[in-house]
Amino acid sequence: MSEARRPAVTITYCTRCNWLLRAGWMAQELLSSFGEELGSVTLVPGTGGIFTVTADGLGLWDRKVDGGFPDAAELKRRLRDAVWPERGLGHVDRARDPG
């Protein structure tokens, strides 16, 4: 896989809100699903109620815009859709199908 296809994911979280564990869990979920397909997953401390997830600068989730926090499956779908749209996610995709 080329380096261009290995995105750098950044999770920025509010330290005052004590969201480090949530950010760490999201990082773990992404690494568990995408492993070596990711270039990096970085946790960045912030303030002001921030919780954002980006891949190479492209916004995947913003707590203030999207409302709250993503569940792991939704975040994985958004990352996949942005970087590897042809890739299946197994049970994560099946759980979304209406039939």
UniProtKB/TrEMBL annotation:
Classification via InterPro entries: Selenoprotein_Rdx-typ, Thioredoxin-like_sf
Which domain of life does this protein belong to? Answer: Bacteria
Per UniProt, the keywords (alphabetical) are: Redox-active center
Q: Name one Pfam family in it.
A: Rdx
Q: Which PANTHER family match?
A: SELENOPROTEIN DOMAIN PROTEIN (AFU_ORTHOLOGUE AFUA_1G05220) (PTHR36417:SF2)
Give the protein name, as stated in the record: SelT/SelW/SelH family protein
